[in-house]
Write a structure and sequence with these properties.
By secondary structure, the chain is an alpha+beta fold. The chain has one domain. The chain contains two helices and eight strands. It has an eight-stranded antiparallel beta barrel. A hairpin with a 4-residue loop joins strand 2 (47-58) and strand 3. It is globular, with a radius of gyration of 19 Å.
């Protein structure tokens, strides 16, 4: 009997840790930065990079807002930014998070409609993640193993 308790203690503590961490998303804000480079499609060939700066707000237990400001840099070195707001609902359970992006709002469009259309494609998109919270860091790992949607955020 005394051997069983030590065997289950790590499991019980792990479950408690996960439950605590994933209940902390509600009413939290996270800042994320990423940079995209080496574009493969012909329409993105004029661009050197897109530096994305996001703030994700989990407004309640099921709604989120993402504010994004991205700097689009051409191969000539010209920089133009785009500003967006994404709104939607999310579902979470343990280490799974599903973001249902309901609306993409352009606060400032880019002069190139190819860039605008790329961001507009997130409208009504559903993205599934495995998440992990460690201290003040939130890790988003795409369930479909698509590297393009993986990112790390820091609590603000």
């Amino acid at each position: 009997m005394h051997l069983i308790i030590p065997l289950f203690t790590p499991l019980i503590l792990s479950i408690a840790f996960l439950c605590y961490n994933f209940s902390t998303l509600e009413c939290t804000n996270w800042h994320c930065d990423s940079i995209k480079t080496s574009f493969m499609s012909e329409s993105f060939k004029p661009y050197q990079s897109i530096a994305e700066h996001l703030t994700i707000s989990f407004n309640s237990d099921d709604h989120f807002t993402i504010r994004e400001m991205s700097d689009v840099t051409t191969k000539k070195g010209d920089i133009e930014n785009i500003k967006l707001t994404y709104t939607g609902a999310y579902d979470k359970s343990f280490s799974s998070l599903i973001l249902n992006i309901k609306e993409v709002i352009f606060n400032k469009t880019h002069s190139d409609n190819i860039i605008n259309n790329d961001y507009a494609s997130y409208n009504n998109m559903r993205i599934s993640y495995k998440i992990r919270v460690k201290d003040n860091t939130l890790f988003f790992l795409n369930k479909d193993k698509s590297e393009i949607h993986n990112f790390v955020c820091f609590k603000v």
